[in-house]
Amino acid sequence: MIKADIEHDAFIKFISSPECNHELIRSTKIVRNLLNKNLPELKKAKAIKQVLYINWMLKMSDMKFFLKPYGQDAISLFDINLNSMIVIRYCYTITNETKNILKGLYKNAIEIVSLHSNKKKEGTRLIKEAITFSRDINLPLVLYAETDDLVKYYEQFKFVNHGKLGDDNEYLMIRLPKS
Question: What string of H, E and C letters represents the secondary structure of 24-87?
């Protein structure tokens, strides 16, 4: 079983659990507090892209999504109907392979760490949200796809496959903000 399938099973199990809504309400409050806490320092440092990223997360959690931490530096956005989830990470550093592909045009990126849905077209809706955000802050989207089917799925959104450059032999896919 590939990592994406294991994560999808965990997503389905979580959204089906009786404590899911309570956990997401609680975690959203915690994540929002942490994001708000970081804003003044980032504004002072004139870290404009990071401020835009945080403001976008805060806006999304006001309107459409619950927030939940994912690992040390990524955030899960669960749609309020629990039909889908996307995990996004602001990349302060990017790999050498990605730097070479981007040819120095971008120092940072937004990584789509994970995407899952339990209803047709919901994943597409989340990808489109990420694309709009990428355009708004002029940063590329990057992701790693494990299978040829996932590569084909992301190519329909103008992600370009750059080959098996991931740590676990996944395909590195990049979508420039102007694409």
Answer: HHHHHHHHHHHHHHHHHHHHHCCCHHHHHHHHHHHHHHHHCEEEEEECCCEEEEEECCCCEEEE
